[in-house]
């Protein structure tokens, strides 16, 4: 009897242990099905997105906004400017004397307000046309006037819309105080029957981890001996971009105080010639030549070529990709005015 009782107790314990083990097995799947992997996948897909054609940065949807090229004043009396932080590409080019003007090209993001807006030169038209841009400017040189009136580019001229589409800021004096909003750019395009949607051929981009070259923490460009014309870019290792300085002061947005940064700095040597007694220039933007490409904390000596109006880096006759982000293209008479550290 005792023997039978022992056998029954043993059997009961065996069954109980078996039940407990089954309960443990049943509890394991919920622990394995945690939500963390799903969250990581969602974040990754949002980060990748659809690359914008002129920055390579991912967005949730494709934008077919036509690029807008605005001539921005870079005189010391015009700094800090408005809207540069939104530009995909900025060309810095000499006008008269030793003062540069900026051609800010917007596509992935549009500025709420941009300026001060300045007058056009004929070679600015060529740079804007490389991206089939709507051209926004305030005044023009004789050569630019002739080309624009002949239909070389779709343009909105502040000379004809001063006080309507273009507004004068009270805190600055003319000609350093003309501004325009993106809403007024759209309004002007509608009035002039210009298309503001266009499919854009994208630039080529590559990951920054694939870029090699000579380590470069600082770039300095002296457009003249005057401090006001000196440009510097200083590398931020943590954020992997270069912060721009002009005349010894950090370049920031007037309204937001946001730093103006570049992920690609493309410095191009082109032939410059003074062509009249006003000091106006002719700049050869078609023949190609020597250049330096700075990106991801390193630099490489390259060449530049004009490809359908765009200034593109090349090496061994092959185009070089930019890294995703914002690009500043500094056009200089000589690379001898450029220094690296």
Automatic annotation (TrEMBL):
InterPro entries: DUF3048_C, DUF3048_N, YerB-like_sf. It comes from the Bacteria. The keyword Lipoprotein applies. Residues 54-194, 219-329 form the DUF3048 domain. Keywords: Lipoprotein. This is Lipoprotein YerB. It comes from Sutcliffiella cohnii.
């Amino acid at each position: 009897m005792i023997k039978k009782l022992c056998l029954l107790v043993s059997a009961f314990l065996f069954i109980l242990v078996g039940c407990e083990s089954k309960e443990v097995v049943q509890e394991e799947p919920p622990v394995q099905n945690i939500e963390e992997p799903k969250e990581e996948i969602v974040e990754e897909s949002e980060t990748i997105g659809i690359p914008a054609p002129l920055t390579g940065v991912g967005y949730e949807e494709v934008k077919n906004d036509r690029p807008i090229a605005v001539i921005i004043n870079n005189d010391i009396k015009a700094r800090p400017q408005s809207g540069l932080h939104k530009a995909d590409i900025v060309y810095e080019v000499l006008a008269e004397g030793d003062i540069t003007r900026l051609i800010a090209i917007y596509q992935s993001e549009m500025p709420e307000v941009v300026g001060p807006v300045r007058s056009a030169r004929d070679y600015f038209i060529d740079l804007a046309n490389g991206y089939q841009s709507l051209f926004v400017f305030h005044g023009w040189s004789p050569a630019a006037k002739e080309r624009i009136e002949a239909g070389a580019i779709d343009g909105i001229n502040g000379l004809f819309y001063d006080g309507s589409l273009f507004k004068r800021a009270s805190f600055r004096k003319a000609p350093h105080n003309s501004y325009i909003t993106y809403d007024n750019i759209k309004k002007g395009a509608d009035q002039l029957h210009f298309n503001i949607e266009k499919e854009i051929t994208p630039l080529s981009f590559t990951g920054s981890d694939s870029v090699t070259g000579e380590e470069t923490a600082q770039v300095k460009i002296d457009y003249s001996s005057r401090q006001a014309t000196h440009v510097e870019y200083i590398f931020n290792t943590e954020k992997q971009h270069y912060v721009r300085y002009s005349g010894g002061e950090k370049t920031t947005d007037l309204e937001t105080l946001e730093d103006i940064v570049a992920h690609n700095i493309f410095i191009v040597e082109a032939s410059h010639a003074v062509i009249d007694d006003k000091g106006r220039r002719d700049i050869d933007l078609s023949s190609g030549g020597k250049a330096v490409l700075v990106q991801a904390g390193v630099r490489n000596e390259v060449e530049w070529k004009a490809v359908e109006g765009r200034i593109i880096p090349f090496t061994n006759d092959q185009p070089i990709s930019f890294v995703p982000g914002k690009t500043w293209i500094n056009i200089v008479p000589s690379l001898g005015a450029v220094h690296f550290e």
